[in-house]
Amino acid sequence: MSFLSENLERLEDAIADACRKAGRRREDVELMAVSKTYPAKAIAEAAELGLALFGENRVQEFTAKAADLQSLRLRDEKPIRVHLIGHLQSNKAGKAAELFDAVDAVDSLRVAQRLNDAAGKVGKRIPILLEVKLSPEETKEGLEPESQEAAQLLEVLPDLLHLETRGLMTIGPWGAPEDVTRACFRSLREWRDRWSAKHSKLNLDVLSMGMSGDFPLAIAEGATRIRVGTALFGKRAPYTGPPE
């Protein structure tokens, strides 16, 4: 058994355990393998183990991997999907629209409009998640949920016909006590419920929250997608490629 297959087996046991404790079905929680900084061959090995959803942080980085993974993305049986989960600069929207199957970190009206225009030019309708900032770290990206920016974006999204809103994502606070982390995840669910009631034209079913260190807490609070990298692929090397 390979290093990756052993890690995946342990991870699946942990996800199943978290689902049991939360009274949820395992099939209701989607696993995204976060492959940023790992080579294309690691993604290919993960795909052969049955994983089909991958998350990348940088447009530039994935550009270098995309050609090596094209056959896996086009195969008839269980093709892989690759989402952009890192911050998207508006000037990279065109390349992101060409390159990714979805963008999970839309955090401004400007980015949404640029991505919508870019998707239209390449004849795509791109699934998106809205990234919401619910922890206090200044380095975190995302929409402030009570901001005018968030209100405007939610109003405009139904008219951006080349985007398909699927839900929300957030990143929990680093190194915080469990109750603080759970409160962050609970808040995302509560904002989803509030916005779903107010904006009936938007589909906000997906709650992407929880990573290697805190996904059991996210599952307990209603995550429908967790994003796991280190627990799958091992310790991540620092990114050394070109800046975004």
TrEMBL record:
Where does the record place the Alanine racemase N-terminal domain?
13-235
Gene Ontology molecular-function annotations = pyridoxal phosphate binding
Keywords, A to Z, come to: Pyridoxal phosphate
**InterPro entries, alphabetically?**
Ala_racemase_N, PLP-binding_barrel, PyrdxlP_homeostasis
Which cofactor is essential here? pyridoxal 5'-phosphate
Residues where N6-(pyridoxal phosphate)lysine is found: K36
Function of the molecule: Pyridoxal 5'-phosphate (PLP)-binding protein, which is involved in PLP homeostasis.
Similarity section: Belongs to the pyridoxal phosphate-binding protein YggS/PROSC family.
User: What is the name of this protein?
Assistant: Pyridoxal phosphate homeostasis protein
